[in-house]
Amino acid sequence: MTSVLSPFGPVEADLERLRQNLTRLVSAKHPILAMAAEHLFSVGGKGIRPAIVLLIARATTPDGEITPQHWRLAEITEMIHTASLMHDDVIDASTVRRGVSTVNTLFDNRVAVLAGDYLFGQAAWYLANLDNLEVVKLLSKVIMDLPEGEVRQSLTRFDPDVSLEEYLAKSFYKTASLISGSAKAAGLLSGVSPEVADRLFDFGCNLGIAFQIVDDLLDFTGSAETLGKPVGSDLIQGNLTAPVLFALEEFPQMRELILRELAEPQDLQQVLEWVYQSEGIPRSRQLARDYAQRAAEALQVLPDSEARQALLQMVDYVLERPC
Q1: What residues contact 132, with CB distance under 8 A and at least 6 apart?
Q2: How do residues 234-282 score in pLDDT, each as one tens digit?
Q3: Do the beta carbons of residue 24 and residue 46 sit within 8 Å?
Q4: CA within 20 to 30 Å of 4's CA: 10, 127, 144, 276, which one?
Q5: Which of 185, 212, 184 is nearest to 301 (CA)?
Q6: Taking a C-beta distance cutoff of 8 angstroms, is the pair 245, 162 a contact?
Q7: Is the pLDDT confidence value at 8 over 60?
Q8: What are phi and psi of 239, to 5 degrees?
Q9: C-alpha 183 chain-centroid distance
């Protein structure tokens, strides 16, 4: 893989234009729902998902052109992602995201759910108007996968018997499905061959799983200030991620504490100590690297270009991102 440089350089101005377009699109309807959506756009992250769409567009069109359909796909992708965040915050009763108040805190749960539904509805409308049946099928499957991931996570809360395979499947539904579906869709809008489209899906799938593993690692290795939430938040909610699953192999006595849902005052601190003493964190890092390597290999199908180089740098960015 490459050295860690900014993968956003070739589309930095494009992403700013996209944020402005999104604000304009959501502001055209109900003011309260628009305010809720705009709040999350304004505190959004780097824009990894739309950046991937725009970079693939530049890497797969003859003149590196971002077509109107690619623009709309990038907007749809960010709408779907933002809607899912709104719903996640309600489900998790989160009060802070990226260091600022969540929509459900600023307004209430009902507004947050309706604002998420509003964005999903807008995304579906704009998706249908792309007039590309294969892309519609891809992104419709993504919208189905997101709640599937949440249901799987809810059904395995505080379950020490959840397998690594189940964890990875949940990670696909929650995170990798959107990245892989939008990556393949971007290629299809460029008219790439089925073989190249499938490799773009593989890129997004592997990158998305690596992203989720790193995100789960940061729950143990990041600071509360950096994360904008308490360290161990996933564990507190009963979400057993890769570091915990690996640590359970070395410290089976964790089972009892997890099964009683960390009910005793010292349970959380004890489980955290076992995770830190185990090989759970290094093994999770290696697992993320393995998936990232597969993502980088999938990009070999693309011709050399500045955009492809940026996509390779995105792989490293996902592995090294601070939060």
Answers
A1: 69, 188, 189
A2: 999 999 999 999 999 999 999 999 999 999 999 999 999 999 999 999 9
A3: no
A4: 276
A5: 184
A6: yes
A7: yes
A8: -85, 110
A9: 13
Q: How far from the centroid of its chain's Cα atoms is residue 95's Cα?
A: 19
| CB neighbours of residue 270 within 10 Å | 15
- The predicted model gives 130-134 an average pLDDT of 95
Query: Whole-prediction pTM value?
Result: 0.92
Written as one string, the DSSP assignment of 188-220 is: HHHT--HHHHHHHHHHHHHHHHHHHHHHHHHHH
CB atoms closer than 10 angstroms to residue 56: 31
Residue 20 above 70 pLDDT?
Answer: yes
Q: Helix or strand or coil: residue 100?
A: strand
104, 89 contact by CB (below 8 A): yes
> For residue 58, which of 9, 127, 98, 105 has the smallest C-alpha distance?
9
In DSSP terms, 96 is beta-bridged to: 101
- Amino acid found at 231: V
Pair of tokens at residue 230: 């308490």
* The listed CATH number (1.10.3720.10, 3.40.50.300, 1.10.10.10, 1.10.600.10) that belongs to domain 9-320: 1.10.600.10
Reported as type and span, the H/E element at residue 317 is helix 306-320
Q: Are 217 and 284 in contact (CB under 8 A)?
A: yes
C-alpha 230/C-alpha 232 separation (Å) is 6
Please tell me the distance from the alpha carbon of residue 79 to that of residue 148, in angstroms, as a whole number.
Answer: 18
96 three-class SS: strand
Residue 260: helix, strand or coil by DSSP?
coil
What residues are paired with 100 via a beta bridge? Answer: 97
**C-alpha torsion 127→129→133→138, nearest 10:** -10
- Integer Cα distance of 38 and 284 in angstroms: 35
- Per-residue pLDDT of 189-248, as tens digits, reads 999 999 999 999 999 999 999 999 999 999 999 765 555 567 788 999 999 999 999 999
| Domain layout of the chain by residue ranges | 9-320
Question: In angstroms, rounded to a whole number, what is the distance separating the alpha carbons of residues 69 and 135?
Answer: 11
